[in-house]
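Dear colleague,

Thank you for sharing your sequence with our group. We've completed the structure prediction you requested, and as agreed, I am returning the results in plain text so they can be pasted directly into your records. Please verify that the sequence below matches your submission; if there's any discrepancy, let me know and we will rerun it promptly.
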Amino acid sequence: MTWQLTHKGNRQAVQLADRHYTRQKPGTSQFCRPGRNLVLLSRDERALWVTWSGIRDDGYDAWECTLFRNEGHYLSSHLIVLALGITQHLWGTPPPDGILTYVGKHLRGGCFYAAGFRRIGQSQDGKPLLQLPSDRMPPPLEAAESGLWAHEIRVV
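Please find the predicted structure tokens below.
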């Protein structure tokens, strides 16, 4: 499994984002909201992760996973942990409230729970709000000399 850093206009990333349940305007050339965004695309272009940093209006001082999609055969919780390590390596110490994400009401969020997140509330429309506190973040994960974050996954 290999994550690579990309941008919010990457064509393959846009196509994955278009199939995500949160996508508001499929087909547009960008899929991130305003603010600082870190976009990771798996080398096989079957998984996408976005970390966002900006001014939140709910009082939390946290990063947010605004989009995660895995259409590959990788364990989603494993991809999440790797993406968190990459985010911390590139952005430094996480904010005091760590990282937050919302999961759809139709989803259970099991992959986020397996990665260490816990439910701390819900959105106004009932989506569960999950948090991984800053003291529970995985360690920073440095890129290989190639600029890619590769991690070998062995199937037993």
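Summary note from our side: The chain has a mean pLDDT of 87.

Kind regards,
the structure core
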